[in-house]
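Extended Data, record 50S ribosomal protein L3 glutamine methyltransferase
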Amino acid sequence: MGMATIAGHGFYGLQGSWGRGWLAVCLDGSTRIMETSMPIGYEECALFGTRLLPWLVLQQLVAFPRSLSMITSRLRTVRDHIRWAVSRFHEEDVFFGHGTDNAWDEARQLVLGALHLPWEIADSYLDCRLEVDEISELQRLIKRRINDRVPTPYLLGEAWFCGMSFIVDDRVLIPRSPIAELIEERFAPWLANEPARILDLCTGSGCIGIACAEVFPEAEVALADLSYDALEVANQNI
């Protein structure tokens, strides 16, 4: 495969038909050809073929009105995407309150969670370069967080409660109860002895009952809910 340069950015070209007969190219991450209507730089280009696009064809391609345009993307590392997400969250006035209370923690939760990286990741790992599919997935999730206002735990399918990870989706509320602190303190000073039985009524994801079962292993714990959908989620978390 050949290589050429556009405005100082190297790219590898792939030629083929796309959409209404347009030609598309796959770039190396520095420069990308994308639909002008795509919001916040989310890439949805179909790639075909294996032959380098001639410079003349490329000039004709980007000249078509309302079809494709070329933009420069410098989002390559974990740190880049956290910083970019923070900026976009502030710009779009995103609400926080499902496990975080600020743009920085929200961005870290979304980016690190999507990449299956631990929250306590070493700072040097933040400068690791991402694969193309990882970049596309991160931008897709950040777009949904902003445009659709989908909470990060729903996007990741995971929420934390009492230091435990729970499966969550839109069938249940996102765990964020202050009861977590009471559980961790074993309900002191109000509970003098360990309980024999515990009922988690309207259990949802099951987080409260399951956390209680961890703290009070000798207790008999029951999870109850009117919603069969919620009970399905709770059952996955047991």
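Summary. The helical segments are 55-63, 78-91, 103-114, 132-147, 152-156, 179-184, 207-215, 228-237.
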